[in-house]
Amino acid sequence: MKRFMRMPSQKSTADIAAPNIAAPIAASSEGTPPAGPKKPTRERGRARVAALLAAASAVFAEKGYDAATMTEIAAKAGAPIGSLYQFFPTKAVLADALLAQYAEALMALLATVETRAATLSPAELAADLLAVLPSLKVERAAAFALIDARPDMVAQQGALRAGLRRGIAAILRAKSPALPPERAAAMAVTLLQMMKGAAALGDEPDLAHGREALAGLEHAARLFLTDALA
Amino acid sequence: MKRFMRMPSQKSTADIAAPNIAAPIAASSEGTPPAGPKKPTRERGRARVAALLAAASAVFAEKGYDAATMTEIAAKAGAPIGSLYQFFPTKAVLADALLAQYAEALMALLATVETRAATLSPAELAADLLAVLPSLKVERAAAFALIDARPDMVAQQGALRAGLRRGIAAILRAKSPALPPERAAAMAVTLLQMMKGAAALGDEPDLAHGREALAGLEHAARLFLTDALA
Amino acid sequence: MKRFMRMPSQKSTADIAAPNIAAPIAASSEGTPPAGPKKPTRERGRARVAALLAAASAVFAEKGYDAATMTEIAAKAGAPIGSLYQFFPTKAVLADALLAQYAEALMALLATVETRAATLSPAELAADLLAVLPSLKVERAAAFALIDARPDMVAQQGALRAGLRRGIAAILRAKSPALPPERAAAMAVTLLQMMKGAAALGDEPDLAHGREALAGLEHAARLFLTDALA
Amino acid sequence: MKRFMRMPSQKSTADIAAPNIAAPIAASSEGTPPAGPKKPTRERGRARVAALLAAASAVFAEKGYDAATMTEIAAKAGAPIGSLYQFFPTKAVLADALLAQYAEALMALLATVETRAATLSPAELAADLLAVLPSLKVERAAAFALIDARPDMVAQQGALRAGLRRGIAAILRAKSPALPPERAAAMAVTLLQMMKGAAALGDEPDLAHGREALAGLEHAARLFLTDALA
DNA sequence: GATGAATGAGTATTCATTCAT
DNA sequence: CATGAATGAATACTCATTCAT
């Protein structure tokens, strides 16, 4: 439920640079007011930010965006609430930072797949791709919690997806340089959905036919890749 | 004063009845007190309940479970807040009812596919299946918002998924009676993920290569089905 | 906590006549609006009113004035809520009626003591008086719940006490006709407090030295009476 | 979001310390979550807590537990509602604190009587005892309002009474060391009732024969004490 | 700066009372 | 008349955010 907004004093925008692939995952949400997290000046600050983000990730994943309280997050990070607000002037900013961090991590994973792409068989490529999302379990849970609870975050979500698609398309072209960019883009969209399916399966560890189902998904992906890259 | 434990005879809002699939998608939630939604007695009530559910669906879909306020839902339905509480003694109960309604609708759709299954080609079956989830756009959005925001709703979510899987498996066996139940179950899990992917694509209407991607997904599903049912 | 008052439509005032001693226990509370209970026309109505009052007594005694709900009271009496409002247009009126009923019962008890007074020894009189209040356990609990929870009921409470004092004084003069009225009145006030003490002890059945304490109270009352009536 | 279980070290607000009587009037109430009132850290807080308790006492006394609203209490104390909740996480906790404070004050008063007991005549002792309760008028009114309106507070009430009885018994033994403990305990129960009677009389200042009645009660108490301690 | 106490708008839920059926 | 569904003001409690220390 929306809470009173004490009109945060309009800080700067996101600064957490993304390494290299890292698409320019858009910045914030609501209009303009609260912006990006303040970059920690020293080593100590950097560690604290990491702890805060980790705590936030865990709490958001466990309770969802709304039910998570800034106080609990700070407590879990062993940091005073004032400190949390020092780096993340708003709950929304914190959520944004988390999403950005998640995006970065994903892009990094895709980047490694990209470098290997040329040497992989379609089957191996399918397996590698489907393994990307499930590898960041908690972060993904947190990211999903954020995405689903914050309507104003759809932009963020879109940026994230766009980045992923670009990354996947890049991989496809690395594997088959001849593939028309348009075609690669379309295939990336399809594959991303299958990757999400794999991740979803990974979230249900004790699912009846989970393992076979995952194999089935990989099988479908392989068939799809083989058929398309042929 | 504590509310009376109404012990509703819980006949499930379900009446649309799904042929033979219709899993009894559990209802539950917390302890005991606020149980199921009160069934409207008079005609006027029935209409009001429908309006309330529709409003709730829209608001949950738009803002998410937590951010949605009972007041807004009631207002959107043109009903006084007391009226909303007359039928849904708790926000959680309202959410449950919505989920149950969604589950019902889905099962009904799957049931119709099941009756036609035997006469469909693998390609047609793939297309029909992938068309199920996207058809209930708003309801699905609301359902997902609920599922992701309420930790105590995981059970609900599980029941819903289980029902869907059962329905899909039934369809597969209707199509290929020789298919081993275990195999059908595993395939259902895989297919459900692809169906969710199709739904996700449907939610992004202005997506760059959305159409091709959907075709790609259908293609993959067809390959998968053909290969497996062969 | 105060609730919205839908401005009850100004009915008539109390009618439940008090037999004979029954002091004119003042009528209602707040200004003037809701007044007395409607006298039941027929036998059926009389029974229903009795059931409602009994239910109200039990519920008020158990939960206190505020926590008791009109709905629960009606339910406990097996009567529809509308029926409850037929006889008691307001929760306050219901409370008033209960208090009046309690007063009546007490006055009746005192009246019987009065008729015997002349033939009793001081010790017997002490015992009889101290036995009055404890005899109406549930009713007293309800009455106290009402008195303590409704500031606007202080008047009612005062009237009740005044009636009791008058009754006790009458008893004293019946026993010792020579006793100056003023003296009897003052003694009545003292004795009433001791009677309340006895009732309080009766409410703590498993109190350590309850029996001895009650005996002590009777002893004190006897000493007091003997000393004063000498 | 659920409040943290603050597990306060519950040192009891008590500091006024009663000589040797001071019963540890338990605190309790429901399950666990909202435990004791948070002890103010800074000087400012200490003053605010005092103001809040005073306001609560006044409001509870005037309207009773249920009718009193947290908002009104905070307003009367000139404090924002959030501040009230900072120290008393629950209305029940606030009530408990008030009761504990009242118990403390009473025990302190009894303690002073105890130290003088040996030097007092029965008549003086009777007068001193009957003067204890009437001296804390508002606090007592509040305490009674709480006791009578909260079913879950019966325990609290019991503890309070037990403490008082112990205190009175201690006084009796201080006066007459030869008195058997059991006898003292029983007498304490009797005397407590008479003390309550005196307090009740004190609450009706303009009562017709109040003064004589109080004298009568003291007389009865004196007779009782003389007779028993002889 | 760092800290954590203070602030108050916002939310779910209740229930006395009415009045259409 | 009798009934019980409908109504909406009122209340306890939460928590993002600020700012005095």
Structure write-up:
Chains A, B, C, D: It comes from Nitrospirillum amazonense. Chains A, B, C, D: This is TetR family transcriptional regulator. Four copies of one chain form a homotetramer. With 230 residues, the first copy, chain A, is mainly α. Chain A is 65% helix and 0% strand. Chain A has one domain: Tetracycline Repressor, domain 2 (Orthogonal Bundle), CATH 1.10.357.10. The radius of gyration of chain A is 19 Å and the shape is elongated. Chains in contact: A-B, A-D, B-C, C-D. Chains A and B meet through helix 6, helix 8 and helix 9 of A and helix 6, helix 8 and helix 9 of B. Chain A binds a DNA duplex (21 and 21 nucleotides) through helix 3.
